[in-house]
Amino acid sequence: MRTVHIVFNAHIDPVWLWPWTAGVDEVLNTCYTMCNTLDRHPDIIFTRGEAWVYEQVRLHDPALFKRIKAHIRAERWSVVGGWWIQPDCNLPGAENMARQIQIGRDWFKQHLGLFPKIGYNVDSFGHTAALPDILSAHGQQNYVMMRPMAHETKLPANIFKWRGRPGGKTVNTFRISHGYATIFPPNLEWVEGSLTPLPNGVNHTMCFLGVGDHGGGPNEHMIEWVRAHRDAIPGARLEFSSPERFFRALQPELKHLPLVTGELQMHAIGCYTGHRPVKLGVRRAENMLALAQRAVAQASPADRQAAAPVLADAWRTLCFNSFHDTLGGSCTPSAARAADDQLAGVKADAEVVLSEAFRKKAHALPADLRQRIVLANYSGDKFSDFIEHEPWLEWTHWKPDWCLLNERNQLVPHQIIEPETLMPDTMRLVFPATIDAGKFHTFRIARNTSGKIAKLTGAAPDFILTVGAEGRGTLHSHRAGLPSVALAKESAACPLPELKLLEEKSDTWSHGLDRFAGPQLDHAHWSAPVQVENGPVRAVWRIDGTIGSSRLCADWRRYLGQDFFELRLRVTWHEQHKLLRLSWSPGAAISSRDDGISDGGLPRTSDGRELPLRDRSLLLLEGGARAGIVAPEIFALSGDASAAHLTLLRSCPFAHHDPKILPEKLEHYSWVDQGEHVFTFRFFPAGKVTAKELDRHALLLQQRPVVADLTRGMPYRPYKDDPQWPS
User: Fold this and answer.
1) What are the residue ranges of CATH 1.20.1270 in the chain?
2) What is the CA radius of gyration of the chain?
3) 372-451+706-710, superfamily in CATH?
4) Superfamily (CATH H level) for 2-267
5) For 543, left (φ over 0), alpha (ψ -120 to 50), or beta?
6) How many C-beta atoms surround the C-beta of residue 228 within 10 A?
7) CATH 2.60.40.1180 region(s) of the chain?
8) What DSSP assignment string belongs to 364-407?
């Protein structure tokens, strides 16, 4: 006899087609209704997850919270998940995912004296291969999910052991067959769907019932229907149950579960290519919080105590806005704007904590007769890269005989570059810096009276950019002694990535697609390259142009002693139902990729599917060479044997869901990602680059040293163009 565990639940999206405030209302409404329902029906069980939900009840209706606790003690109300909310399970970093669990666990232990052992993300759009190890590390050996569904990804059964990588931890995973909620009355076909994909030797399954996407739960008709059809399926029996009871009953049958290895993708590829601001907001908040935490760890006990509640609140807000419909960009325009505002607040709060911890130490350094640039590296790894900074020089231009000195009083290579503003008397420096993790380094502004020049280590940054037809071109690295006229013919060339504009008319989620294959409508139309920097530290070529109705400006950069090309791309985006793709052919066929995910890398075939990306992609080429892309501001890519395709922007209406037919004109409606966007990439041509090196560069771009200008100890503040300053 097989047992169908009927799981009564209410799916509550705190944000989706409504703002988070409406999510609070629905939490209170649903929990009140379900307490009354449990009081009337002593044989049923209700299942509910997410600490955020319970916290809203505790704050807004303490009496209702007491009723819930009583039902939990009576084992009538089952607590699952244990996380703060149900996040997107691809884009958040490993620390973000761990915090989801830790914050939820701490809340449940404090207020309910328990922590669920069952992970529960039934509505997330896909699941990173990092997740089984993260779940196991927090004591959750069981997991419930739904997407990708059977028509999207074939699995050997609906109950299986899942591991992300060979040799990794496994979790017992259940995939919901039809849905976690029912907007129509239940029927036997819905229940039977949970039985057909059972592994041989397994006699337990779950069927989820409950009204609505916006809260609700089981109603009277649904409860009576289950009672009436308890024995309606031959060889099976329906029981009021919960995920906790199901996994307990499954224990003797675990040996029959098949093993599944790898990520679980893919339900909604559009959710990794739409509403870029919220994705950038989460990523930047993650990195700022990481810096702030490390800075505070070095602070005094009193300062650590003062910062703790600020950082805790910031993490809760970040975790809340990592919710799958928020981070996935599938909510309403107003809800998206609210999320952007909250994430900006997280980053701002973390930056204040970071600044205070850093500046208390920086301004406690001994006085110095010279103006100083003080840097601190809180990234957790050694920093060795290039710094851009605009020291305040009292409206004085940097003079030819001025220099930078390091802590050993050695000359530091530097270069004057364009400032951020268009003021007449401002300037900006770029210079190399190497700083150990957790350490400070001081540079001094001085006058070079020795006549010596700073030692230049490594190959010069010279290179040539050529642009041809259809937006194609090449990047040629400099070889000492080779005339520039011959350079393009004789030096090894790196193909220039191509920008392509594709037609893309799918809905916001891109339901039913595993790749974007619309026809190409346009390519980049570039101006002739202009060299805007050519110094000892960096060379820069600039091209501007158009694609479709959008403007482009690309700065191609190469640095002293470095083997990568850096691209800073500005796009002013004015498209509708189109997609902007950056395609890079590394010069040899791509046999496979190692793409960045939440906690490192994952081998993938370059088979054309659109997949989530975090930070970078290592391209394994035929012949044994490797090429790489560092792209921490890109969140999805695809690829084939000829090229890697990064999806930069996709313009769809907010929250458009098939089969809704759009009117011919939608000028009054909000379209995703209109306006200005800036991207930074690092391209490593075919050679010996490793995944570890790409990860290092992703960290260098995202967790930069913090900077302070110090004039403490200078004998006086000079007038503009004071000839005696600096000394």
Assistant:
1) 276-362
2) 29
3) Golgi alpha-mannosidase II (2.60.40.1180)
4) Glycoside hydrolase 38, N terminal domain (3.20.110.10)
5) beta
6) 10
7) 372-451+706-710
8) TSPP-SS-EEEEE--SSS-EEEEEEE----TTPPPPTTEEEE-T
Cα–Cα distance measured from residue 571 to residue 544, given in angstroms and rounded to the nearest whole number: 10
Secondary structure, 3-state, 304-362: HHHHHHHHHHHHHHHHHCCEHHHHCCCCCHHHHHHHHHHHHHHHHHHHHHHHHHHHHHH
pTM score > 0.85 for this model? yes
For 276-362, give the CATH class: mainly alpha
Residues 565, 703: Cα–Cα separation, whole Å: 20
For 171-193, the DSSP string reads: EEEEE-SS-S-BSS---HHHHHT
Task: Please list the rounded mean pLDDT of every run of 10 residues in the chain (727 residues).
Answer: 97 96 96 98 97 98 98 98 98 98 98 97 97 98 97 96 98 96 93 94 98 86 98 98 98 98 96 97 98 98 98 98 98 97 98 98 97 98 98 94 97 97 94 98 96 93 94 82 44 86 97 97 98 98 98 98 97 98 97 97 97 98 97 98 98 95 90 98 96 98 98 95 92
- Give the helix/strand (H/E) hosting 573: strand 565-573
Residues forming a β-bridge with 565:
683
Please, are residues 89 and 96 in contact by the beta-carbon 8 Å criterion?
Answer: no
Instruction: Considering the chain, tell me which residue range(s) the CATH 2.70.98.30 domain(s) occupy.
Output: 463-661+670-689
Tokens of 218: 């089981």
Q: Read off the pLDDT of residues 400-430 as tens digits, 9 standing for 90 and up.
A: 999 999 999 999 999 999 999 999 989 999 9
Q: Give the pair of three-digit tokens for residue 304.
A: 């650590």
Query: Strands (DSSP E) along 13-67, which ranges?
Result: 46-49
The domain covering 463-661+670-689 belongs, at the CATH homologous superfamily level, to Golgi alpha-mannosidase II; domain 4 (2.70.98.30)
**Angle at 573 (CA atoms; ends 570, 575), nearest 5 degrees:** 155
Q: How far apart are CA 466 and CA 171, in angstroms?
A: 52
- Token pair belonging to 504: 């893309």
Evaluated on CA atoms 226, 228, 234, 235, the torsion sign reads: positive
Place of tokens 């009436």: 228
What lies within 8 Å, CB to CB, of 717 at 6+ separation is 394, 711
